[in-house]
Amino acid sequence: MKPWFVCALSALLITPLAAEPCLQGSWRTEACPNVIYQSIEEQEQRRILCVCLEDFQHLRQPLDASNNARLLLQKRELERLAASYDISMPNVQRVLRLTPATEAVNSD
To answer: Signal peptide span per the entry (predicted)?
Structure first.
């Protein structure tokens, strides 16, 4: 077996074991059908997070800047996620793959 193949196979098998609890909707009762794994750096340490992007589609929708209530709700939800998972706000925005326009709105 080639060494690169062994390394790649090891990474695929170990990543789910090294991941912390999944970033997912609190309402989820079944396993997420499409989990992704992302590495982040928090407090000078690397962390691997699994993320269920499907649960956060509502946060990834374009925002109407005139809808202050929706902007505030979205900001509060992102802050809650950051606090719950002990992740900085920029990393929450990155792992949820928020658009630059959404990030700008939420970085007040």
So the answer is: 1-19
DSSP string, 22-53: -B--TT--S--SSEEEEEEEETTEEEEEEEEG
| Residue 32: CB atoms within 10 Å | 17
Q: Is the pLDDT of residue 104 over 50?
A: no
How far is the C-alpha of 41 from the C-alpha of 24, rounded, in Å? 19
- Does pTM top 0.70 for this prediction? no
Give CA–CA dist 57/25, Å, rounded: 11
Domain boundaries, the chain: 3-106
**CA distance linking residue 27 with residue 9, whole number of Å:** 33
